[in-house]
């Protein structure tokens, strides 16, 4: 249902109940849709530390890995 702002002002309680009952209500200005009326949803808190102990971090990412160096520099293809 598309409702112009002037009509929405006069029927706000009715429109709110319609949204709560599951109906889609769009507010418009000069019949141009602007916003959807939707029921309020609680904002979920961000919970930090969910991956604690599950991820291993390298102390110095610039350190070279001997196994990788062996693959690149001591390969028979390069020799």
Automatic annotation (TrEMBL):
Q: Which InterPro entries match?
A: YefM-like_sf (IPR036165)
Q: Which domain of life is it from?
A: Bacteria
Q: Which family does it belong to?
A: Belongs to the phD/YefM antitoxin family.
User: What name does the UniProt record give this protein?
Assistant: Antitoxin
Organism of this sequence: uncultured Campylobacterales bacterium
């Amino acid at each position: 249902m598309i409702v112009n702002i002037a009509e929405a002002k006069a029927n706000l309680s009715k429109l709110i109940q319609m949204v709560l009952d599951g109906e889609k209500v769009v507010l418009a200005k000069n019949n141009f849709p602007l916003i959807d009326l939707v029921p309020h949803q609680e904002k979920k808190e961000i919970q930090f530390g969910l991956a604690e102990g599950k991820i291993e971090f390298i102390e110095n990412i610039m350190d070279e890995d001997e196994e990788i160096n062996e693959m690149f520099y001591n390969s028979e293809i390069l020799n």
